Structure formats: C-alpha cells, structure tokens
Amino acid sequence: MKGRIIILLAGLSVSTPVIAQQAAPKPMQTVRAAVLRVDAPTLLPISRLDTPPGDLGFAGAKLAINDNDTTGRFMNQDFQALEITATPETAAAELDKLLAEGIPFIVTLADDAQTVALADQVGDRALIFNARARGDNLRGADCRVNTIHTAPSYAMLADGLAQFLMWKKWDEWFLIAGSHPDDIALADAYRRAATKFGAKIVEERTYEDTGGSRRSDSGYVQVQQQMPVFTQDAARHDVVIAADENSVFGDWLPYQTWDPRPVAGSAGLVPRAWSPNLEAWGALQFQNRFEKLAGRTMRDEDYQVWLALRMIGEAATRTQSTDAPALKEFMLSDKFEVAGFKGQKLTMRDWDHQLRQPILLATDSVTASVSPQDQYLHQSSALDTLGIDRPETQCKF
C-alpha cells in the first residue's frame, strides 16, 4: 500500500510543472466582411410564393458565419459580416462607409450595372464577391480584377440546361424572350448554347412587357389568356425555352402553350445555382440547418452569399491566417477549393474569377438532373463545359 502511495505522489510531482508551463491561449483574430444588398423597385412576382423575403441573402450570410465560426473557434479565428440594405441611389454612400471602416471583403447583391459601378468604386481597397448579377459581360468585356463571381453566369445556366436537353434529344427549341435588357442577355446565352451543343432554334418570339399589375385579376387574365394564342402556329419544336428574368410571362407558359410541349428556362425545368428540394451530397442536412435558422427555404441569393463567405472561411482555415491579402491570394490560386453540397469541389477560373460549380435543373418539387452531364468531357474540368471557357473569354484583367 505504501509503495502505491509513493508512486502516486511521484506522478503528481512530475505533472505539476508541466501544467505550469502551458502556453497562454492565442488572442482571437477577426475576419470582417459585409453583405451589401441593393434593392431596386420592381413589380410583385406573378406568384406570391416568389415574393422576396426581407432577409434575402442575409440569412445565407448568418449560416455562413455560423459555419465559419464552427471551425474558426479551434483556430482562434472569429468571423463577422455586416448586413447593409441600400437603394440604387444610396449604394455608393453605403459602400464608402464600409471602405472607411476598412472592411476587406464585400459581398454584393445588385444588378449588372450596379455591380460594375461598385467594383470600380472599390478599386484595390477591398475584394468584391458578386452574389447576384448573372451577366456574361461581367465575366467578359466588363470584368474587374477585384471581383469574384459566386453567382453563375447566364452562359453557365444556359449551357447546363442545353446539355440536359441534348441528352434527352430535344434539340429543336422554340425560344420566347422578354423585352427587358436582362431578358435579351439571357436569350443571347441560349442562342450561344444552341450553337455550342448542336441544338436548333426553330423559331423566336418576343413577349413585350406593357406594364401593369401582374398580381391583379386583370393582370392574371391578360397574360394567361394570351399564352395559347401567342404560341400558336409556331414551327415544329421539342421544347419551349423561356428567357424571362423579370417574371412577366414565363410562369404562364406551362400548360398554356398551343402545342403540348415541355417548358424550360425561366419556368418549368429551371437551371439554378441552388434548389430547396436538393437532398443529395449532404444537401438535406444543409437545407435543414438553414430552415431552422431562417424559418424558410434557401434561395439562390442565400446560397450565393453563403458560398462567398464560406470561401473566406475556407481560405482562413487552409492558410491559418486572417490577413486579407493572404486570403485573397489563396482564393484566386489553383490550390483553392470549397465544398458546396453539389457533388464536387468548387474551384476558381483564373481567367474571369468565376467560381466553377454544377448547375441544378429543378422543378418546384424535385431536382431532375445536375449538369455537367456525364457525356460532356473537358481536358481540364468538366465544369468548364458550362459557361465561357478560357479560349473564348473576352476578359482582360
């Protein structure tokens, strides 16, 4: 018994100095970011289910900060994201305030023109993450070296849908485009996709937006009753492609066309960055966490903001640094990748700073397919079959 007591006390005498010599914990390092949402006046959507929630994008930011902090707390890293709402008239002033505070990462939710203006205003003082604007020009002639795009481009969305339609052998398209500039830009992307993958646009028509309330009874009746006659006598086609970024007519195409044909594009089968019905690749757990946090399903803007802030968090983890220039350098390098719950790692295109990502093809209830489709191969990444590839780019940093 005495021997055992002596051994125990000896053990205590050895361990006590070790505890006393433990290093003090490192101070917490903070990574600051901001989400700037520019809300322009628009008409109400056709369906009340599509009414934008007040926390659109910001809910995605909250989830991203939670996810970043889960890892960050073990590395003495703390993540913060300010949430700023602006109008097109006040956006520049709000951005100036963020720059004055030294915020190095700014996620924007704005249209094409506003995104370019904000990027030019920032210059080299911060890194912009475009989480809404889809214009191919932003990744082309109007590209900016200080901007990363987590929102997929029109070309990526159109190519994702085109690959699926060609796999289905639905290669004759009836293209209906709206009259707004972004409708025209989306229609251009579908024309390009048709040429790229061998489809034929057998006929094109333009649906003119004459204004008025789309949520009133007269608005419903006007557009709904127009669709059968508007689509009458079209050339033989396999599928109707809608290019309707402003939700003027697209939702009235399914079940209202003169000929019984499937509808895709802005209605029916829709190419998307995210779908609230995706369950594969850990997405169900991801969806559940978001819905518990926000009390609603995730939208594209939420996902794209989440993705931008997760890129920052992933870079901080991988580099074990909170230094903004170091994080930027790593995110733009060929070593960077981030998980996006879409079946494969997402990486950066160095020629236009577009984040490579699969495109989901979704209906209201299910994700019907995910592009790139298996039969479309590429010498470096199958994801580069979606959108503007290196040899095609007009971007010059």
From TrEMBL:
One of its GO terms (biological process) is amino acid transport. Pfam families: Peripla_BP_6 (PF13458). Residues 1-20 form the signal peptide. Residues 86-209 form the Leucine-binding protein domain. Keywords: Amino-acid transport, Signal, Transport. Belongs to the leucine-binding protein family. This is Amino acid/amide ABC transporter substrate-binding protein, HAAT family. It comes from Paracoccus laeviglucosivorans.
